[in-house]
Design a protein that fits this description.
single chain, alpha/beta, Rossmann fold, seven-stranded mixed β-sheet, three-stranded antiparallel β-sheet, about 35% helix
């Protein structure tokens, strides 16, 4: 039995489509693609929104476990492939998407995935789960810097024009608002004047992600603040911060700062 059954996609479908309806127009403004490939497309929610905006040259790629009856794109626009293996399609696209997929593949497949994406398009919209984000069969949750190094080895720079525009939009699922970056081929980035190399920290945690994790840990979340046992809260924060390179994190009513390597402090704003 597949880990990703019909109810898995049913649970994600509404939020994925709703998020794409906000994000896709921003991507079109930044990149102006005429062809799009979605690697790990699921039921094709994102590609369906690109079609709504007039992009007909689309292709969705995902495992054979995706039922054709669930597809939101024409069946002839879906290609079943094992994403842990090199992906060669015999053509390129203007834009590749890989949204919340990389964390589902084993760590030793990370390089293969990035190489496949960079072969397919000069611009890649990429989103992947950070450590402790949680989800169905997540086996390689990494901070954005990990993926930035991978893409950098293929000559791509990281751009962060999308997150700041969707960060506070409740229509967008928090994992996209938190994780979605754009990687562009450095030698061709001049063709996309709206894109520029990110200059600020990439490892940031969305307030909705923090509240979600608090509830998973059994904390009580109140509408205007956080009410948790101090030992649980502080132990959780220490464990999280030790795992990554988080430099700055604003929580609801709490500032958390990373001070040097292996140290951290939690202070309330004045």
């Amino acid at each position: 039995m597949s880990l990703y059954a019909a109810d898995y996609y049913a649970a994600l479908r509404g939020g994925s489509r709703r998020s794409a309806e906000v994000v896709v127009p921003i991507i079109l403004e930044l990149v102006h693609p005429r062809s799009v490939v979605d690697v790990g497309c699921g039921t094709g929610s994102w590609l369906a929104v690109f079609r709504q905006h007039g992009i007909e040259d689309i292709l969705g790629v995902d495992g054979a476990h995706v039922s054709p009856e669930l597809l939101e794109i024409p069946r002839d626009r879906f290609l079943p492939r094992d994403l842990s293996r090199p992906l060669r399609l015999g053509r390129t696209f203007d834009l590749a998407i890989c949204a919340e997929v990389a964390e589902h593949l084993p760590p030793d497949c990370a390089g293969t995935l990035v190489e496949s994406l960079t072969r397919l398009a000069p611009v890649v919209v990429f989103s992947a789960a950070i450590p402790y984000q949680g989800g169905t069969y997540h086996c390689n949750e990494q901070w954005p810097e990990y993926w930035t190094r991978r893409f950098g080895a293929s000559g791509y720079i990281v751009c962060d024009e999308v997150r700041r525009r969707i960060w506070g939009d409740a229509r967008v699922e928090w994992w996209y608002a938190q994780n979605l970056l754009v990687f562009a081929e450095a030698s061709r980035v001049h063709a996309y004047p709206a894109l520029s190399r990110a200059q600020h920290p990439l490892s940031i945690v969305h307030p909705r992600a923090y509240l979600h994790l608090c509830t998973r840990l059994g904390a009580t979340v109140r509408p205007f603040g956080i009410d948790t046992d101090a030992d649980v809260r502080d132990g959780f924060l220490r464990r999280w911060l030790r795992k990554g390179r988080l430099q700055f994190w604003r929580l609801t009513g709490l500032w958390v700062t990373r001070v040097g390597r292996g140290s951290q402090r939690c202070v309330r704003p004045s």
